[in-house]
Specification:
By secondary structure, this protein is an all-alpha fold. The chain has one domain (3-121). 83% of the residues lie in helices and 0% in strands. It contains 5 helices and no strands. Helix 1 (3-27) crosses helix 2 (29-63), helix 2 packs antiparallel against helix 3 and helix 3 (69-86) runs antiparallel to helix 4 (90-100). The protein is globular. The relative contact order is 0.11.
Length: 131
């Protein structure tokens, strides 16, 4: 793995732990653990319900031989929201909650769309890391 990737995950983990200790200092450890479990439950519910809904929409488009453009983008962004909410931490929970709201979901959808367009125009085979 690249050193940049290792540093990214190390800094992310340390910042999440630091913010969790700050939050637990304000609302107690029991309430912090309850909040972590609640966001895990919400992320799990979102992953199951929204994921199934967008998957069925994509299947309908593919069966009718139309392009499922928006369904793929919204489904991938909502799947990312579910993953963020399942992951324990303050930063990931805030990002997951921001993606849930339709007003801010458009920002994340446009970021994803621009990333995919850039990768396709550069004819890159890898979206994140090379093997």
């Amino acid at each position: 793995m690249s050193l940049v990737v290792i540093l990214f995950f190390a800094i992310g983990t340390l910042s999440e732990l630091y913010l969790l200790t700050i939050v637990s200092g304000y609302i107690s450890i029991i309430n912090t653990l309850s909040l972590i479990m609640f966001t895990f439950l919400v992320g799990n519910i979102i992953g199951r319900s929204w994921g199934k809904e967008y998957f069925e929409k994509m299947q309908w488009h593919l069966k009718s031989r139309t392009i499922p453009g928006d369904e793929v983008l919204n489904g991938s962004v909502m799947a990312l929201s579910g993953m963020f909410l399942v992951t324990p931490g303050v930063i990931t929970d805030l990002l997951g909650i921001l993606i849930l709201f339709p007003m801010t979901r458009g920002i994340f959808t446009s970021i994803t769309e621009n990333l995919v367009k850039k990768k396709i125009s550069n004819s890159d085979l890898y979206y994140f890391f090379k093997d």
